[in-house]
């Protein structure tokens, strides 16, 4: 069952390795947070990575914190070297949790990639979406959480 709206953000613990800096729930207190689950073996995920970067840059002045979580879908996906190469290739400058044991995945009750979980400044889940249209479905809830008027 997917994580329910208005649920408090889970801890980001049990990560195999952090890239671009480790982040804890305490570090994110009082900030809007977008958690993005992706996988190296997911073509749709790779296609959307530049869009995630654009979102990060567009809303950084609104204090949006973007956290990537690499969710392996097969044994081959647990190889850290290729994941790090992909992070570098796609210029993912925000913190990336390599979650080979699925600890963060399980805490978020996540099943799909790509998927997005948007938390407000109080740390409550305000939106979640997954799949091909996940990014387009995110736009309006994101602007609402950030207090941006159209």
Automatic annotation (TrEMBL):
In which domain of life is the source organism classified? Bacteria
Q: Does the keyword Glycosyltransferase apply?
A: no
Asked if rRNA-binding is a keyword of the record, the answer is no
**What InterPro entries is this protein classified in?**
AhpC/TSA, Thioredoxin-like_sf, Thioredoxin_domain, Thioredoxin_ResA/DsbE_sf
Give start and end of each Thioredoxin domain. Answer: 3-147
Give UniProt keywords alphabetically.
Disulfide bond
Annotated GO molecular function terms are: antioxidant activity; oxidoreductase activity
The entry's protein name is: Peroxiredoxin
